[in-house]
Predict the 3D structure of the following.
Amino acid sequence: QVELVESGGGLVQPGESLRLSCAASGIDLNHYSIGWFRQAPGKEREWVGCLSSSDTRPKYGGPSDGRFTISRDHAKKTVDLQMNSLQPEDAGVYFCAADSRAYCSGQYNYDYWGQGTRVTVAS
């Protein structure tokens, strides 16, 4: 059974940073393309960015605006989302997703999804 688990969410003040991590059991994330998504209350899920299984340069969606960085830790078999200069509009539940395709995208349906970790940005 495959399970993805996000961690690192929490409450921060505007301008602060958070680092989210995506880990998995049942699969080796090093062999999967990973996407990060978020969903704010009352809004549709949006694509934050992704990293292909071949670790080519990450791709980012609109929410990143140059503030987010996705990276892979091969030793830990995790994929992290570093978020800097967080603003209240960045609040929501952040999800990671894994797919066996060699390329990553914000458009296709990923094979596996985590339950999400909540990010709250408030002063």
